[in-house]
Design goal:
This protein has about 400 residues and is mainly alpha-helical. The protein has a single domain, classed as MFS general substrate transporter like domains (Growth Hormone, Chain: A), CATH 1.20.1250.20. Helices cover about 80% and strands about 0% of the residues. It has 16 helices and no strands. It is globular.
Amino acid sequence: MHTPSCMYWATIVREKLHRNIKAIYGLAFFNSFLIVVPVIVPFFMAKGLSLAEIFYLQAVFATTIVIFEAPSGYFADLFGRRIALVIGAVIHGLAYLSLNFANDLATLMVFEILAGIAASLISGADIALLYDSQKALEDDAASEHSGGIANLSFIRSSAEGLGALFGGALALFSFDLMVLIQSIAAWVCLLMALLIVEPPAPDATTPKARIKIGTILHHLFRTDPILRHVVLAIPLYNLASFHVAWLTQPYWEAQGISLAMFGVLWFSQSLTVAVANKLGFQLERRWGAVFVLALIGVLPIIGHFGMAWLEGWYGIVFGLLLFVCRGLNQVILVNALNRRVPSEFRATANSFTSFLFRLAFIITGPVVGFLAEARGLQATLTVLGVASVFLLVLIMLPLMQSVKAIQRGVTA
């Protein structure tokens, strides 16, 4: 029998968990409300950087995340996701504060390193906290289509879009004013993180210190063929749209698009991701998982070749297909990952996929930047289109075959 005291505390815990979800959404919004991003390439060029140096700078950011990503996820699982988010939010605020004083490659590297550490601490911990909060509330986290992850991705994409509109308008007046407002908005993440509480552990009798990296890697790569393919697909298909995100601004300039339109175009990309976030599970329910996986595999091929071979607004519209792919990836594949890993190392698993993504960018980013400067955007986009074909054959088709095998086993 539940005593009134127990029921009272249970109600308090539920209220805090509901607040958790709102705070995580708020953190995601302000962490993604990056008003500098839609004009980041012109901003860096105004500091005297070449396109190759900009890609090099992003490789520094990616290297920082590679170093800190998996350890930060493990730290979050071991010592608490809330602690990881609070520390990450503080460093996030310091990063954008430092951007006010960055004027050359060296000082911009300091900004990128701080931003990379912050992103490592926040990445993975936020999704794990959201998933576990919903599970503790007996919400839809355990269902096949978790609305929480879709909402989180939608909020992030919406924040990117709104930030793009705001940043594009501010850039017309002053880059310095834009960076100042960005640095103020960045500190709201800390307020959101402080509102979060740790959900009750699913098994309080199991010491967290017993979690071993070897056990986690074995679970990710050896226990389930679908999980193994998903762990590889998430970072590589993120990479497919990430390269283009850094090429779109010089691509727009090459098409004769004015700086005033950059914010609107970036908003359209973020809106495309947000719509794909919302429609992803509906497509999966109606047409099946294999159909949506095929879309994720094919869209980068069409998008890259479309941008390479078509000019003007036609190429820009085809480029949006890459952001449809990103939106579907963020809900379909990320949900598939989180459903297949236990709570004890869910943050580590999410951080590990981000680690693989950043590691891949360290290898490919400088090459793409050099190729864009040496051979031009058309050649670079064509190469990325060819790479997307290999990605479809080597990564997505095996994942689709694994899903089909499971479906045949269920219906047999």
